[in-house]
Design brief:
1 helix, mainly beta, 9 strands, Porin, about 210 residues
Length: about 210
């Protein structure tokens, strides 16, 4: 439901802006990394590796006055991150092996970014973004012979919808292609918990290409 709401919002924004002159839109592909920042109370239990992310999506840019523009991004993102180890035990509860665990997530993000043209090629700006995580699993990386290991389970402790701050820089190569680099700072806790001392926030960086269709 939340995913459909985000798509509906983007469609409404695109429909409203479609009547403006000199509007441009296109597609984008990006890849990057992210690091999970944890509160002191979580440091002992949380052992996250640097995560990987890849995104495909679309953008729409509405020119404003004084070299500025408003850009809407919608990004479908896949994430993968090492999440430490679990100990495999036998039926007598004796430890027999360690197995690595990874988080795998799929999310759709909607971003609104104010961009300012520094010159003919460079522009930079910031804004606000919302990310809805519609798929999140913990997966066991290692199977142990003759013992049943549950291959995956839902990450029920994570928030579905989070708020982040995108900071984007663009370099225009030509009329069709532009390089886009973006840092994302997660503002809200990604943990779905009532304990305010337990906090996890992602700090990410991605880069890719914007292709202009119009």
């Amino acid at each position: 439901m939340k995913q459909k709401l985000l798509l509906l919002i983007f469609a409404l924004l695109a429909g409203t802006a479609a009547h403006a002159q000199k509007i441009s839109y296109g597609v984008t592909a990006r890849a990057g990394v992210f690091k999970t920042l944890v509160s002191e109370q979580r440091e002992a239990a949380a052992t996250y590796d640097i995560g990987l992310q890849a995104s495909l999506g679309a953008w729409l840019k509405l020119p404003l006055a004084n070299k500025s523009s408003l850009q809407f991004n919608i990004l479908n993102t896949a994430e993968r991150q090492g999440a430490g180890e679990v100990q495999v035990i036998d039926y007598n509860r004796h430890p027999i092996a360690d197995a690595e665990v990874r988080d795998e997530n799929l999310a759709v993000a909607l971003q609104l970014i104010y961009l300012y043209a520094l010159n003919e090629r460079w522009s930079a700006g910031t804004g606000v973004g919302f990310k809805y995580e519609y798929y999140s699993k913990n997966k066991i990386e290692k199977d142990f012979e003759d013992y049943l290991i549950h291959p995956s389970y839902d990450n029920e402790y994570r928030q579905d919808l989070t708020l982040h701050l995108p900071v984007e820089i663009q370099y225009t190569f030509n009329e069709r292609f532009a390089l886009a680099a973006q840092a994302q700072v997660q503002l809200s806790n990604r943990l779905d918990t009532t304990n305010s001392d337990y906090r996890e926030r992602d700090l990410g960086f991605s880069a890719g290409i914007n292709y202009k269709l119009k």
